[in-house]
Amino acid sequence: MRLLFLGDVMGRAGRDAIAGNLPRLRDEWKLDFVVVNGENASNGMGLTGEHARGILNAGADVVTLGDHAFDQKDMLSFIESEPRVIRPLNFAKQAPGRGAGLFSDRRGRKVLVTQVLGQVFMKRPFDDPFSAMDEVLRRHPLGGQAQAILVDVHCEATSEKMAMGHFCDGRASMVVGTHTHVPTGDAQVLPGGTGFLSDAGMCGDYDSVIGMDKAEPMRRFITGMAKGRFQPALGEATLSGLYIETDDRTGKATCVKMVRQGGRLEQSGPEAR
Prior knowledge:
Layout: E1 2-6, E2 8-9, H1 11-28, E3 33-37, H2 49-57, E4 62-64, H3 75-81, E5 85-86, E6 100-104, E7 110-117, H4 129-139, E8 148-154, H5 158-168, E9 174-178, E10 188-189, E11 195-197, E12 202-203, H6 215-223, E13 239-246, E14 253-261
Parallel strand pairs: 1-3, 2-12, 3-4, 4-5, 7-8, 8-9, 9-11
Antiparallel strand pairs: 1-13, 6-7, 10-11, 13-14
């Protein structure tokens, strides 16, 4: 199975890059299943129902969220009617929506998609991500009902993402980090057969400060004073993420490749076949 994960979509630039490139990539790379983290797609903070539909219509099979899951208030109701949008497993127990879902690829093979929030350096304490993930993976053993399993680890600390990767090794096809908007260079297949990348990076304009127009963040760093709101940068976006191929029998990764398409960071991705 050929799986693509794309990192945090950042504002209009990221949405335009998804709409303009994902249909082509699905065709050129013969992708079976695509997951996109969309939690910053709406003005850099959260995701509206309208923008979620745009990402899904562009070719995403599932959209994951994060700590900004419900910054856009209409997501509180939209997520109840759209099972292809996944919020974190360990968010507030009263939160609407689901933290995991079992979906079919275009050939009918089952793919489990789930997401957890980390605890280290996050603004508020979320429930233990490891016990939450363990419960889901115990219910859905890799290679059983789920022929592939994709885990989005949305957290600040690289160490916590790596720990989750090893915790899931052999039990998931892919574990990929999101949240920092900065892509890492450690794509690998872990010893147990799980494809891993500490952070997918963002789908946004990299001539920025983590996707925001440079002026206001730099002013605050230099002077310690705010003058205005953060606004997403509007230059050409780079699609950043991770591509893996899996063995259909075991669900384990057979190869991984970092994806950098367009914009300032374009450099890699699977060859067209």
